[in-house]
Amino acid sequence: MKKICEKLLVLIIVAANCIGIMAGCGASISSITTISGNPAVKDRLEQIKEKGVLTVASADNKPFGYIDPQTNQFTGIDADIITEIARRLGIDKVEMKLVPFKYLLNELNSDNDIDIIASGLYVTEERKKEVLFTNVWYKEPEAIVTLKASEFNFKEDLKNAVVGAESGTVFVELIQKWKNDGSVKDVRIYQSQPDLILAVATNEIDASILDSASASYLVSRYKNLNFKIFTPYKPELPGIVAAAVKKSDTSFADAINKKIDEMKEDGTLIEILKKHGLNESNFVSVKDGHISGQ
User: Fold this and answer.
1) pTM for the structure as a whole
2) Residue 209 is part of which domain span?
3) Model confidence pLDDT, tens digit, residues 19-55
4) CATH code at 71?
5) What is the distance between the alpha carbons of residues 278 and 288, in angstroms, rounded to a whole number?
6) Domain for residue 162, yes or no?
7) Cβ atoms of residues 261 and 121 within 8 Å
């Protein structure tokens, strides 16, 4: 019995020493972290307010975001929305960083100076894996554009047509699907929207697919080019548009979402949409504007 007690006492002492060593190691690590570790990193919104500038990456993408040559100001649907959000967040200045559309997500995640991307960006399941979307800003599905003199008027006419889309957009996947099921003869992919439009204007391709807001802007602003939009046409994509931030910037996204919802409720957002030729059909309510699965 005595031997058993002695052994038990030894085990207790050993265990106590181990706990002491572990506690000592923990204290040591903690003190090292305190001395040599970096101070707590400020969240994105705090950083933006400190520097006084919100940096938006956008493609030169009319009517969503572009530099107006007359005013030299960042303008467009998304530009006006994010500028108003910034104002409500207490940020006086918004700067645009020009990035080709297909590189927007990569640039957001690789360049810490970029706070947000906004360029008529459709919300998709694949993109949700890479970025954190804000609440929905508005909706505007795809459209098909060709020349007025073209023999093509409906999607059913495109079986013998070459159709183009801009690289990096969801429309590439859509027209590839059309080619695979025989709805179009062939597809061409262009590096920018201006290149795509030029290809239609010069008969390099028969038609192009792009978002309906861009299509309407194109037809109304460049009447001399004699473009037309397929009507009627039943869109195949929901065309849900939002901005996106880095996955880690959740508090920044929450702050943006609060302001977006305010703008929907007080009528500011619909005013911006109408200013740029959109209407109530493009509006998404607060109730329907939350993006699931993020």
Assistant:
1) 0.84
2) 142-229
3) 333 333 333 322 222 333 445 578 999 999 999 999 9
4) 3.40.190.10
5) 18
6) yes
7) no
